[in-house]
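Sanity check. The docking grid for magnesium ion depends on where the pocket ends up, so I'm generating a full predicted complex first rather than guessing from homology. Inputs follow.
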Amino acid sequence: LERTFSIIKPDAVRRNLIGKIIAKFEENGLRPVAMKKIHMTREQAEGFYAVHKERPFFTELVEQMIASPVVVQVLEGENAIARNREIMGATNPANADEGTIRKEFALSVGENSVHGSDAPETAREEIKFFFTDDEIV
Ligand code: ATP
Ligand code: MG
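Predicted complex below; grid placement will be based on this.
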């Protein structure tokens, strides 16, 4: 079984969508094996999104991620990384398929409700960024 890292972003937490989003994961074969609600610091958000620091939307992205709490999770399942990306849908909700989280819940390309790791190496790094081994059960 593979593991991936997920964030339920501030826009979704504010709109009381935590349960509906976790239901999507569980209905599609992804089991939460670690979870916590946190309010990210600016340092955490900038570190987490460091790969995007030269992008024009970086400041906006960091501001959105620290505006209010998020839920961080480790999801486990068969092909969890790719499966999670499928369940999330396209980055821009205008391009997201029917039934995906972003199609149903996202507000815009910036406030797009969820984050999910894009590859095995980033999944490992992102899990380590927020969780210790003993928090994964
Ligand atoms: P994520 O990494 O959050 O799972 P992603 O891999 O689909 O999403 P990335 O290209 O990695 O998308 O961008 C990271 C995040 O930056 C996006 O989820 C979105 O919130 C924000 N973002 C990306 N492109 C734009 C844009 N053009 N304008 C505003 N925000 C953007
Ligand atoms: Mg990404």
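Relevant for the grid: Residues 52, 57, 60-61, 91, 109-110, 112, 115-116, 118 surround adenosine-5'-triphosphate (ligand 1) (CB under 6 Å).
Also worth noting: Strands lie at 2-8, 31-38, 70-77, 114-116.
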